[in-house]
Amino acid sequence: MDAINNQAETALTPVEQAAIVLLSMGEEPAANVLRCLGREELLAVTQVMSRMSGIKVDTVKVSIQKFFDEYREQSGVHGASRSFLQRSLDLALGGDIANSVLNSIYGDEIRPKMARLQWVSPQWLADRIAHEHVRMQAVFLAFLPPHLAG
């Protein structure tokens, strides 16, 4: 049995294993994970997901087991999430001061909005910012992955 599991594990790429885990968890949980991925990661894993069919139960078991094994190895306290800090600082300092502290840690609220630019076509963005000041253009480009900004 271990030989079969080892064959199934080595035959799959990490992206294929991720696709199997995402397909196994259902639409809403998978959507929550997909929201956290960058453009290239999302495209890679969803392309693999769209091509998968006839996956054997043993292959699914191996992929899920590997996911949980790696999760157990890496889980621990790695720092507070922004939402944890937001709630804690709100209780300790009040909303305005908490927001000020969080903005100094994480940057302005513009970062998540600017991250959406990775989904627009480079030509569309170039047309929209062509008449902006060069410094403003640089700000827009700074939020893009390097291959898109180029």
From TrEMBL:
<dbReference type="InterPro" id="IPR000090">
    <property type="entry name" value="Flg_Motor_Flig"/>
</dbReference>
<keyword id="KW-0283">Flagellar rotation</keyword>
<keyword id="KW-0282">Flagellum</keyword>
<keyword id="KW-0472">Membrane</keyword>
<dbReference type="GO" id="GO:0003774">
    <property type="term" value="F:cytoskeletal motor activity"/>
</dbReference>
<dbReference type="InterPro" id="IPR028263">
    <property type="entry name" value="FliG_N"/>
</dbReference>
<comment type="similarity">
    <text>Belongs to the FliG family.</text>
</comment>
<dbReference type="InterPro" id="IPR011002">
    <property type="entry name" value="FliG_a-hlx"/>
</dbReference>
<dbReference type="GO" id="GO:0005886">
    <property type="term" value="C:plasma membrane"/>
</dbReference>
<dbReference type="GO" id="GO:0006935">
    <property type="term" value="P:chemotaxis"/>
</dbReference>
<keyword id="KW-0969">Cilium</keyword>
<dbReference type="GO" id="GO:0071973">
    <property type="term" value="P:bacterial-type flagellum-dependent cell motility"/>
</dbReference>
<feature type="domain" description="Flagellar motor switch protein FliG N-terminal">
    <location>
        <begin position="12"/>
        <end position="107"/>
    </location>
</feature>
<protein>
    <recommendedName>
        <fullName>Flagellar motor switch protein FliG</fullName>
    </recommendedName>
</protein>
<keyword id="KW-0975">Bacterial flagellum</keyword>
<dbReference type="GO" id="GO:0009425">
    <property type="term" value="C:bacterial-type flagellum basal body"/>
</dbReference>
<dbReference type="Pfam" id="PF14842">
    <property type="entry name" value="FliG_N"/>
</dbReference>
<keyword id="KW-0145">Chemotaxis</keyword>
<keyword id="KW-0966">Cell projection</keyword>
<comment type="function">
    <text>FliG is one of three proteins (FliG, FliN, FliM) that forms the rotor-mounted switch complex (C ring), located at the base of the basal body. This complex interacts with the CheY and CheZ chemotaxis proteins, in addition to contacting components of the motor that determine the direction of flagellar rotation.</text>
</comment>
<keyword id="KW-1003">Cell membrane</keyword>
